[in-house]
Amino acid sequence: MRSDIAYRPDIDGLRALAVIAVIGFHAFPELVHGGFTGVDVFFVISGFLISGIILVRLENDNFSFIDFYARRVRRILPALLPILIASLLVGWFALFADEYRQLGRHVAAGAGFVSNFILMQESGYFDNAAETKPLLHLWSLSIEEQFYVAWPLLIALLWLRRSLLPAFILLTLLFSLAVSIAITAIDEVEAYYSPLTRYWELMAGSLLACLLLFAPRHFKHMDQAGSRLGNALSLIGMVLIVVATFSFTKQSPFPGWRALLPVVGTAMLIAAGPGAWMNSVVLSHRSLVWLGLISYPLYLWHWPLLSFLRIIEGQAPAIGLRLAAIVISLVLAWLTYMFIESPIRSGRRRGLTAAFVVLMMIGVGYAGYHIQQQGGFPARIAAQARHILAASGEWGWPGKSLQPLKLNGETYQFQPSSTPKTVLYWGDSYMQHYYPRIDALLSRNPDNYKSALFMASSCPPIPGVSGAAPCRDQANNVLEHARASSEIDTVVISASLYKIFLNDASLYAFKQGSVDEPLGLGRDGSEHAYRSLQDMFLALRKSGKKVFLVLPHPNGTRLDPKGIVRRDLTKLGAYTIDDSGVTRESFGARTRPIRERLVSIAGAAEVTVIDPVAFLCDAIVCPSLTEDGEPMYMDAYHLRPGYVRGNAVFLDVTLER
Fold it and tell me: Per-residue pLDDT for 631 more than 90?
């Protein structure tokens, strides 16, 4: 009879490396670019250990489903409960109503181990940034637990024909890997959070456990110290993990084939055995082993601390604060391990303890659901702050008056008037947020204005320029339709052009043949994009169209309702109002080179330039509130629908007959 898989300190050391990578990525993403791959290391380790336990107990004929799930409960829930409870308590004092509502939703999802599905649904243009979701990291825990709902049953069924088990695991692994590669190419969000695209990583560990059980002779010689094969495997495995940790970035499509690096690297380190030099000397070092023992609560604690810091600061926290958060998370992880996790896992009356912990988790999950249903309890917040925050997230697109219109394979939004002449409004969300003004004019008196046709998407309105969205040839298609249409006599361009041409994160590129040239200050890609924009203006003017270019409006966190209402850390639950806005000079300083270039290009093509800054700012300041104290913006980048409807008069000239 086999005993359970022997304890290997090197695997705890491997856990330590994984959690260090994840924390490094979360705290210092500019240094540890690909630290998110530490999660993939965890997946392989989990698949190896848990599947190994199941297989050994099946072979010993003492496997019990009740015992297995009770062990999972005692392993996972005790450390998770204090994180969920602490997040709700801190959120009560630190979060705005919409943020607290979302936190409640995430607590309920975390308690039910469906966080990955919730995060998949939430992804979108106006969704909160990942850094402001304190329980974002629970997606990986959810995938793991979803895997273990069905996996023990499948293994038990296949145990009747155990010779087929390795082939089944391998085929399932390859299928999941293929799905991961395919989905990553078309939808990175779904690929990142879907269990179908991640199960192969757990399966890699499961396959390794299965091979160690059924073919131990192939691994036995690697367990010995000095084994060349074992040393080579462990060294290559470590190199693969390090390369993934420091070479990938947030912009790298993931998981897909790139996840092979941390997954194969982890499998190699485990397969090398505890006798390999890398495993016995480096990974088995007492400091790494200690960190590995508390890696689970450390993973749980570090991200809420960093995320709440980011929310409260309103920007990336200072390095000192981030380091302090890591130290605090280490202390909390050790306390959780010593006084919650270990006593519950090894204590008496384990069945009763598991049942009690499950009931507590149900209660916490319901509390999160109730908070979501109550809208985050907005009455917690003072009336003035609550009034300003009500503007956050308001959006007036596409509006009830618009009707979809399919033209030449592109989907437009159309609002008719009494004249056949039409204005094409073309751009991205910087065009969409102006729609309420167009709607107000057409709804009030359609006889005085032309019809409005909107082509507003995430695709830059510059032929040859592509962004994060798969734009294909949209710009060329829209341009050709505008030139050929006799109804369209005016074209209005409004887009986040400063962002496109500044492009600090390399999100935009100009396609030159088969090469994508990134945009940015001083880059060749920007020069090609400027020329393309000028050619587009000239083509539209040559076809008899009147053309307007609406320059980007002021933006910044001090214009955001959530930037106006500042959290006061000196008094729990207190807020201060900062309505200072942004100075005209500060906004103009960084964007001036691009603005001057755009104005020059427009002038050369006889395109009329509209500069919202002249309307939204006085000589010194671009305010965040109107004289009546009403917010002008719905976030840091977009104007509020109610304000646009009544005040964006600079657009009226574009719609006049």
Answer: yes
User: What is the token pair recorded at 200?
Assistant: 């192969």
Where do the DSSP E strands lie in 287-387? none
DSSP label at residue 95:
-
Q: Which tokens in the block code for residue 655?
A: 């719609």
DSSP 3: P
Task: Extract the tokens encoding 127.
Answer: 């969704």
Q: Residue 49 has which token pair?
A: 């250990």
The Cα 468–Cα 418 span in angstroms is 38
- According to DSSP, the β-strands at 451-456 and 410-415 are antiparallel
135 pLDDT higher than 70: yes
Distance CA 47, CA 60 (A): 20
What average pLDDT is seen over the chain? 92
Q: Which of 254-268, 416-430, 505-519 has the lowest mean pLDDT?
A: 505-519
Exposure of 559 in the CB half-sphere (CA atoms within 13 A): 23
Residue with tokens 């023990």: 152
Strands ordered across the beta sheet of 546-550: 403-407, 410-415, 451-456, 422-427, 488-494, 546-550, 608-610
* pLDDT interval class at 574 (50, 70, 90): confident
Pick from 549, 532, 555: which is nearest to 613 by CA?
555
